[in-house]
Amino acid sequence: MIKVSNISYIINGKKILDNISFEVKREKSLIVVGANGAGKSTLLKILSGFCRDFNGEYLLFGRNVKRFTPLQLSRIISYIPQIYSITFEMDVFDFLLFSRFPHRGFFRNYSKNDIEKVHNISEKLGVNIFLKRKLNTLSGGELQKVMIASSLVQESEIILLDEPVTFLDPSSQIEIYNLLKELKEGGKTLIVVSHDLNIFSFFNGDVLGLKDGKSAFYVKKGDSEDLKYNLEKIFDVKFFKIERNNRVFFNFDV
Amino acid sequence: MKKFILFIISLSVIILSLIYSSKGISIPHFGDKIFLYIRLPRTFLAFFIGAGLTLCGAIYQMIFRNPLATPYTLGIAQGASFGAVLGILLSLNNFFFIFSGVVWFSFLGALFTLLLIFFIVYLKKSFSPYVLLLSGVAVSFFFSALILFLEYLSDFTRGFQIIRWLMGSLGTVGYKDVLLIFIFLFPISIFLYFLSDHIFIMTLGDELASNRGLNVKRIRMAIFVITSLLIGSFVAVCGPIGFVGLIVPHIVRIIFGNNLRKNFFTLILFGGTFLLLCDIFARNIIFPAEIPIGVVTSLLGGPFFLWVLFSFKGANKL
Questions:
Q1: Residue B214 to residue A70, Cβ atoms within 8 A
Q2: Does the beta carbon of B219 lie under 8 angstroms from any beta carbon of chain A?
Q3: Do A190 and A29 contact (CB within 8 A), yes or no?
Q4: All residues at 6 or more sequence positions from B35 whose CB lies less than 8 Å from its CB, including other chains
Q5: Backbone φ, ψ for residue A64 (5° rounding)
Q6: Which of A197, A191, A241 is nearest to A41 (CA)?
Q7: Which residues contact B96 (CB under 8 A, 6 or more apart)?
Q8: Were both Cys, which of A55, B43, B106, B188 would link to B17 (CB 3.0–4.6 Å)?
Q9: Which of B191, B212, B259 has the most A C-beta neighbours within 10 Å, making it the best mutation to test the interface with A?
Q10: By the 8 A CB rule, do B205 and B65 touch?
């Protein structure tokens, strides 16, 4: 579904990404980890089709991504950026409705079906209580839920998330992780960028590690020993591992 | 409900503008030349210009994600003013092909500025709002300096004429100015109406807008070009009338919310009514003299904006 080979990205002579290759199959997920500045967010921007001046090949359903228009891409991929970058005031309802934009004709207004969809999904995710509020008045957890709702309204197969739980309190983190799990079970393909260690315990998937723009490791789903070894290598921190309820938690000691 | 009240108010202001004169209220009779060739076209002109400036101001504030953006931010108005000042200095008050040389020079100045900004953007190879905004500001300061220089070089009468021109004026005789503005305003506002959702989505930032399926660069470019033509025509006919494009969009946003598609006609109605009301004051308050319209818009609009800011509920989250 997504096949990336030898992607490099250079800004002002500095290599942000260097020769990254990986593949994500349909309904599988990928977690991208790495220290701050490792190029994770840039990778996500390239995957979303926003940055197009990269070197290398990025095939989406076997077709070069540069040959998709933004409109075609938006029907396949939805991208959720880091939430603190949203500052403009806009009604939550309008924001969710705009996710139907890719499915709307140029001269048409939104149909009844579009509006219904917004209401259904916001009810399902519990964001219907703040449909009338403005985006910039929401808390971090609420905003993240609205963002996830918007990607559901957009009905794209692939969802890209940039640091979905950073800056959230534990209860919001749990809510978001549960939502992501539901999305995955619902057949979406997720690519999540995160340096939150809990992600490996709540969320199963292959893990790609980035260090200084280079691909440091690729660990298949479930191989926790290998993951621990590699995580220690890229973060340069000793981790300890706790196994509980058949799940593996990582943490570090100061 | 709010929109209905606005509609009633603007209807009454239009009627007031048509029937009110220094001699008091008089019902115009057919064949009244002052009514037909001066007051009626002037009412149209004020309404169109106010509507267009407000619309462009709101759109610029959205696509540049900057509450201080105005229709004149990109330097189009300064370029057009420079053209007009050059025209005044060269005494091009004669009419070439319907309009006076000053109007033509002004419009050419606007087109030249548009090309200049395109050239800068092309050199920089970036079409981000910041590049556009900053190069616009640089260009507008450049032209302002040139205008000051020309003013300094000019003799007393021309200098006075230049200053009066730069204050803006809605004085018009007959319908050619109105027609010119209408020819630009009507198709462009229809086009902008169909782009209104695109523009509103672009306030979310380029990444999110692009992920909603917008070709962000192309839309920004299209909007930039067509609004520049509109603003160029406004400045060519009426001079740079300030304040309307900056504050009226904010007033509309505070009272009616910021959904561009829903408030499109509200912006037009509010902007047109506002400038019309200002014009009624400008031409009647110290009759027989006329206060320049640019002075009135700021004098009336400033306190009005503060009143809206303090008395409407949604305003505290500005």
A1: yes
A2: no
A3: yes
A4: B18, B28
A5: -60, 130
A6: A191
A7: B104
A8: B43
A9: B212
A10: yes
CA distance, residue A153 to nearest chain B CA (Å): 11
Closest by CA to A150, choosing from A131, A129, A169, A177, is A131
Looking at CA atoms only, how far is residue B84 from chain A in angstroms?
38
The DSSP element (H or E) to which A117 belongs, if any, is helix A112-125
Task: Supply B287's token pair.
Answer: 């009759």
Tokens of residue B25, six digits: 């209220």
Domains in chain B with CATH codes: 2-317 (1.10.3470.10)
Q: The tokens 């690519």 sit on which residue? A: A191
Residues in A touching B201 (Cβ below 8 Å): 98, 101
Domains of chain A: 2-252 (3.40.50.300)
Contacts of A106 in chain B (CB under 8 A): 194
Is-contact B267 B58, C-beta < 8 A?
A: yes
Token pair, residue B63, equals 């696509």
Cβ pair A57, B219 in contact under 8 A: no
The pLDDT tens digits along chain B (318 residues) read 888 899 999 999 888 888 877 677 777 776 777 788 888 899 999 999 999 999 999 999 998 888 888 898 889 999 999 999 999 888 777 777 777 888 889 999 999 999 999 898 888 887 788 888 888 999 999 999 999 999 998 888 888 888 888 888 888 778 888 999 999 999 999 999 999 989 998 888 888 888 888 888 889 989 999 999 999 999 988 889 988 998 899 889 888 888 898 899 999 999 999 999 999 988 888 877 888 888 888 888 888 888 888 877 654 444
CB pairs under 8 A between A and B: 74
- Does the beta-carbon distance from A91 to B257 stay under 8 Å? yes
Closest CA to A183 of A222, A209, A144: A144
How many C-beta neighbours within 10 Å does residue A128 have?
A: 18
| CB contact (8 A) between residue A98 and residue B212 | yes
Interface ipTM: 0.85
Cβ within 8 Å of residue B247, ≥6 positions away: B301, B302, B305
Helix intervals (H) in B154-263: 156-166, 176-194, 196-202, 206-211, 216-238, 244-256
Q: What is the largest CA-CA distance in chain A?
A: 59
DSSP letters along A50-62, please? S----EEEEEETT
What amino acid occupies position B83?
Answer: G
Which DSSP state fits A84? Answer: G
B197 and A89 within 8 Å at the Cβ level: the answer is: no
- Burial letters B75-110, b for 16+ CB under 10 A, else e: bbbbbbbbbbbbbbbeebeeeeeebbbbbbbbbbbb
Which amino acid appears at position A158 of this protein? I
